[in-house]
Amino acid sequence: MNLYQFLKKSLQEIRWERSIFCGYSGNLDWVVSLQNDQFLRFEEKMGFWPDSFSKNLCIPEIYTIPELINYVTYFMHTASGGEGDLKKMDLVEVVMQSTSGYFSIGGTGAQAANFLAHLGLSHVHLHLPIYNAYFAQVLHPNLHVYHNTSFYAKEMGKEIVSSLSEVHCIFDYAMGTLYRIGNKVFKTRRSDRIILSYDRCNSNLHISEAFKKELLKPKKEISFLVSGFNSLRKTEDLSRFVKENQLIIEQFRKTHPKASICVEEAHYWDKEKERIETVAKNIYPMVDSVSMNVREFQTIRRCLGFQNRDPVEALYAIASKYGIRRVGVHSGENCLVVSAYPLEQEILADSLGILLSGAKAYYGRFVGREELEKFLVTFCDFACSKEIPVPKPLGRGYQAFTIPTLKGIPIVSTLGLGDAFAAGLLVYL
Question: Residue 178 is part of a domain; what is its CATH number?
Answer without folding.
Answer: 3.30.1110.20
